[in-house]
Amino acid sequence: IRERRFVFVTEGYKDALAMHAAGFTNTVALCGVAFTAGHLRLLAGYTQRIVLLLDADRAGEASMEKIVAMLSRGTGPEGERLEPACLFEVSRMQLPYGEDPDSLLHGSGFVSFRRQITASLHLALLETYEHRLLRQIAKTVSDLSLCLSCEDRISLLSLLAKQKSRLSRVTMRLGRNVVV
Questions:
Q1: pLDDT of 102 strictly over 90
Q2: 140 closest CA partner among 128, 121, 125, 155
Q3: How many angstroms separate the Cα of 25 from the Cα of each of 3, 20, 33, 44, 119?
Q4: DSSP letters along 15-76, please?
Q5: Which segments of 30-93 are extended strands (E)?
Q6: What does the pLDDT average to over 60-84?
Q7: Which residues make beta-bridge pairs with 27?
Q8: DSSP 8-state secondary structure symbol assigned to residue 40
Q9: What's the pTM?
Q10: Does the structure show a pLDDT above 70 at 90?
């Protein structure tokens, strides 16, 4: 996990074993859909980036939404504020509906599975970067509205142009239209 600088989080131990068998050894299992404060503290000792790879069913999707919302607010499962060491950047990977990593590996074979996971990871990380850029742009625009000096405004406008350019490249790679 430390070497790859992120962790895959799956629902079940069979999913984690499938990921390990395919060479993704930076994988842990929740053994259910509950994500506890203990999980967060333990993971914080190894990484600040979590890639959720939960089952593509109702329970997995509901859990993924809950975990993403919780971590984006900087709160734990009971609503408690997380200490700075337990703040994470979270990405989510989408599998075909009804699949999980274990069934995908057994259904598609080793080579295809690795290819699908790698492509899906790339997409998930790009989407996370896109969201980070959107937050940075919103902050820059907010700072711009508070700025009085010409020098500061020019500096912020230059930064905004760079951020928009980066966002444009990312959204094009994701096959989306730039909305900013």
A1: yes
A2: 155
A3: 10, 5, 20, 17, 17
A4: HHHHHHHTT--SEEE-SSS---HHHHHHHHTT-SEEEE---SSHHHHHHHHHHHHHHHHTB-
A5: 49-52, 89-92
A6: 80
A7: 8
A8: H
A9: 0.72
A10: yes
